[in-house]
Design goal:
single chain; 5 helices; 66% helix
Length: 111
């Protein structure tokens, strides 16, 4: 992952998870650790809010279920952080590869 991608992902995560600028890391492993800690905090204090965030970020429920299963390989917060980071990578790639053309003749759209 290059620095531009990491910066874009970090910016998206910062806004969604209300994270401090000072906490924003410069490499993917550190970003995963910071995100996992934030998710851990949310699991303890605001689990409904966390689930709402996962829904809004379009993290698939079919991927969340195995991560939250008691027999999961890694702790829930780390597994969820990996899923969120994976989804953010997809979003950044989609934004880069799909370009829309500006709408023309929008004068008739005035309400």
């Amino acid at each position: 992952m290059n620095n531009t991608d990491l910066s874009e992902e970090a910016a998206l995560l910062k806004a969604s998870f209300e994270m401090d600028d000072a906490l924003m890391p410069t490499d993917e492993a550190a970003l995963l650790a910071v995100l996992a800690q934030r998710i851990s905090d949310l699991l303890e204090t605001q689990p409904e809010y966390l689930m709402s965030l996962l829904y809004r970020l379009d993290v698939l429920e079919s991927k969340i279920r195995p991560v939250m299963h008691p027999g999961a390989i890694e702790p829930v917060n780390i597994g969820l952080a990996r899923l969120v980071l994976e989804r953010q990578k997809q979003r950044v790639e989609t934004k880069r590869s799909v370009r829309t053309t500006p709408l023309e003749d929008t004068e008739d759209w005035n309400w």
